[in-house]
Fold this protein.
Amino acid sequence: MSENDTAEADEGESTEPTFEAAEYADGTVTYPPHTVGPNGAERVGTVDLREREGRVVTWTTSTATPPGVREPNTLAIVEFEMGDGYDGPPVRALGQVAERGDGSGEAFGVDIGDRVEPVYADELREPGAGIREPESQDWDGFRFRPVE
């Protein structure tokens, strides 16, 4: 995430970073955002994926995680619902599955086809566990939580 991913903080607006995808002149949307679209179209705007639901395309649980990443770590590839008028390529993202709110530290269970929503996490992994200086990296991002 870049420094300008934080939403403007007006009255009642969230200061949570956006989950930004790029929108292009030909109507396609991609995540992660690129300066030029898949068909060579110019980037004309952004879409905040926090405002979209997605469906789990596939998922896996890793038990051999990098330093500072929770173990086990459930990851999902999610395809976002872009609306009836959208006829571009699927908009997909890979991310961790959110932890249950019961204090167990366990991730929610997900299955192919489950509806999920992105939720902000200020730390996707423990900053001091890696070999790089913590100040040199971003530690926040989005996880996916099942929609009830």
Q: What stands out?
A: The beta strands are 20-24, 29-30, 43-48, 54-62, 73-80, 91-96, 115-121, 141-146. The radius of gyration is 16 Å. Confidence is low (pLDDT under 50) at residues 1-10. DSSP finds no helices and eight strands in the chain.
